[in-house]
Amino acid sequence: MEINVQQCCEILKEMDDIVILSHRNPDGDTLGSAFALHYILDQLGKRSRVECHDGFPKQYSYLLLDYKPEDFEPKAVVAVDIADEQLFGENLEKYRGKVDLCIDHHGSNKHYAKNWLVRDTAAACCEIIEDICYGFEEAEITKIIADCIYTGVSTDTGCFRYSNTTGHTHAVAGRMFKAGCDFVMINRAMFEVKSFSRIAIEREVLNSLELYFENRCALVCITKEMLERTGAEEAELEGVAAMPREVEGVLVGITLRQRDNGYKISLRSGDEVDASVLCGKLGGGGHRCAAGCFIEGDFETAKKTILKIVGEALEAEE
Amino acid sequence: MEINVQQCCEILKEMDDIVILSHRNPDGDTLGSAFALHYILDQLGKRSRVECHDGFPKQYSYLLLDYKPEDFEPKAVVAVDIADEQLFGENLEKYRGKVDLCIDHHGSNKHYAKNWLVRDTAAACCEIIEDICYGFEEAEITKIIADCIYTGVSTDTGCFRYSNTTGHTHAVAGRMFKAGCDFVMINRAMFEVKSFSRIAIEREVLNSLELYFENRCALVCITKEMLERTGAEEAELEGVAAMPREVEGVLVGITLRQRDNGYKISLRSGDEVDASVLCGKLGGGGHRCAAGCFIEGDFETAKKTILKIVGEALEAEE
User: Fold this and answer.
1) Residues of B whose CB is below 8 A from A171
2) Mind telling me how many Å the CA of B171 is from chain A's nearest CA?
3) Cα–Cα distance measured from residue B26 to residue B60, given in angstroms and rounded to the nearest whole number
4) What letter does residue A87 receive in the DSSP assignment?
5) Are B160 and A175 a contacting pair at CB < 8 A?
6) Which helix (H) or strand (E) segment is B85 a member of?
7) What is the pLDDT of residues B119-174, one digit of tens each?
8) What are the start and end residues of each CATH 3.90.1640.10 domain in chain B?
9) CA pair distance A222, A241, nearest whole angstrom
10) Rg of chain A, C-alpha, whole Å
């Protein structure tokens, strides 16, 4: 059943011994939402713990500062920022079909829970968690909750840069400032700190940069050899696909990622070109500004194939 | 005389044919403030134009979309975001000692104007300009003014990341959203787009990266040869000094910039080490987290000198 914030609070009030689920490959919003909810429930005198298929990556350790997970047999299951049970991951498979409450901001939410509170105008699930906190007389936005909620809104909006950011997002951030959130530390941890191997792979990616079509298209590649040389891991490649479009004047950025039998293509574009349409021509898909596809064969084949399609689109755009 | 917002509005009401001054090496806040004020004055039916020693760099061209500079003999001079007349630059020297009104957010403001409105709690001068706009019944925050003000607050806070950001800053940003500011375009232009030569110099800087003191110190250099090879200009080096401290675990980042007879040192630090104290030992200075000094001699001499001082500080910090 679809519910509103008030109903959500009433349902939470009836629960105890609650498992809160975050999605696999967790990000700042799913973990921020989960721990904020945990700290809210703690103020209500309820036991809860957060579970995630991949555990809690160390860059998020500041979210756990006041966290004392308790061992109990769950009587209730709440999922936060999870659009689809597919995103639970194997370790949480046991909760499939057993979610009592889902709080989410994805319009694509599959409504797999008994009750769902889905607000797709929210830039981050944490924006909804804030409202839930205000729904309890016994709860308030403590410093640690402010850190959790700020982490969610900041990471899901790329530090207020992505188009999903709203005036409401800024209002939420302003309120978290009042509650003393440590935004300097959080943004440094989320956006500035890079591992040495990440820096090494960025350097390699920049070295591979090529410009095409009067510098309106930039292409980079990530080969297996580069990963071996730098020691960079999969998780350290996040955001690398955005790099080619950072070059001045570039309308389409292409990243070729070497796989066993070909190349995975990531396309990034602005308003001028629809990346999902171009990737669709090669059997892929995605969003208007960020899409992907796969091309079998060697590097030259993959490059030639994707450049042909991008070149045609840029010609049509003129 | 020190004035408040209301007095500032009254003074502006009495003015006409106004020159608005921005500081040399202009940034988003001085230009955002100047053009926002111009568009406000325009709504009041007053002639004004913006002047800057260095003109208006092309990445800020969207601030000028509704700008039609008029040729007139100035009857009044207003300086925005300029703490000191030294920052006028040669082309604006004629206005020294002739500024009627100064609007600024630097606590170090030299009070060189007849009247000054200085609020050092404001993260950006544009925050004060917003209040000035509300002080006029005839003026409102139009879309272009929202773009100007958002540019100021976003750039002066590093997109809401620097410690000068406040809850008020977020509130200002939220109001600019309501007025339709194009924050996606602005943040892309300000923070994401890089010239090809900037990317080339970043690559060179990353290639020069060295780690010291159990990876708690990172050192990079920018040589004349690098600049020649990449074609990067002075203005394209902004923010490069922040790069070494982006490495995970690094407490002090050092950038050595080659000059004719030695090396200019930029030091960046977190809470653990006071960069201004370390640079002070070498005759330089600055802020706690960002300071600078100059060391005469060749690269090895400069490196050895600064590393000795940083090493001692890191040892004391343990």
Assistant:
1) 170-171, 174
2) 6
3) 10
4) G
5) no
6) none
7) 999 999 999 999 999 999 999 999 999 999 999 999 999 999 988 999 999 999 99
8) 5-191
9) 10
10) 21
What's the CATH superfamily of B5-191? inorganic pyrophosphatase (n-terminal core) (3.90.1640.10)
- To the nearest whole Å, the CA of B213 is away from the closest chain A CA by 15
Nearest to B170 among A174, A187, A196 (CB): A174
Q: Please write the tens of the pLDDT for every residue from A22-57.
A: 999 899 999 999 999 999 999 999 999 999 999 999
User: Is B175–A159 a contact, with Cβ atoms under 8 angstroms apart?
Assistant: no
Q: Which CATH class is domain B196-317?
A: alpha beta
Tokens of B194: 């890089």
Q: pLDDT by residue (tens digit) across A288-306?
A: 888 999 999 999 999 999 9
Residue B249 tokens read as: 């675990």
Q: Is A170 left (phi over 0), alpha (psi -120 to 50) or beta?
A: alpha
Q: CA angle, A264 as apex, A259 and A265 as ends, to 5°?
A: 155
Asked whether B15 and B103 are in contact (CB, 8 A), the reply is: no
Pick the closest to residue B14 from B39, B44, B36 (CA basis): B44
Does B187 contact A161 at a Cβ distance shorter than 8 Å?
Answer: yes
**Portions of chain B given CATH number 3.10.310.30:** 196-317
Chain B residue with the nearest C-alpha to that of A178:
B167
